[in-house]
Amino acid sequence: MPIFSQLVDVLAQTLMIYSVVLLIRVLLSWFPNLDWGSNPILSGISSITDPYLNLFRGLIPPLGGIDLSAFVAFLALNLVQSLLEQGRMLLASSGLG
């Protein structure tokens, strides 16, 4: 398998793992009593996902107390994953991957 195809595979798997971590972050945000600062696991999840979520929080204000930025963040991540999958299929069909 050529190096470019392997790189696309690794990137696709990384984005899949990031999607799961992001989902965990969003689900845990429904529990307002969690102490994100003192728990190292929660702090790690927050430090990995919050910079990405903050990109969308600046664009979309909360509507009625509901933060829609996570929804848009998932859509953007899904779009990138779909583009990677299409690129991988294109590489495979052209004989380069």
Keywords:
72% helix, mainly alpha, 97 residues
Our measurement of the CA-to-CA distance between the termini, rounded to an integer number of angstroms, reads 6 Å
- Shape annotation: elongated
Mean pLDDT: 86
**What are the low-pLDDT stretches, counting only 5+ consecutive residues below 50?**
none
What can be said about the biggest beta sheet? none
Strand elements, count: 0
Helix content: over 70%
Total number of helical segments?
3
Report the portion of residues in β strands.
under 5%
Query: Helix-strand pattern, N to C?
Result: HHH
Spatial extent as radius of gyration: 17 Å
Alpha-beta classification: mainly alpha
How many structural domains does the protein architecture include?
A: 1
Characterise the protein shown here.
By secondary structure, the protein is an all-alpha fold. The protein has one domain. About 70% of the residues lie in helices and about 0% in strands. It is built from three helices and no strands. The protein has helices spanning about 5-30, 40-55, 70-95. α1 (about 5-30) packs antiparallel against α3 (about 70-95). The longest helix has 26 residues, at about 5-30. It is elongated, with a radius of gyration of 17 Å. It starts with a helix and ends with a helix. The model has no long low-confidence stretch (mean pLDDT about 85).
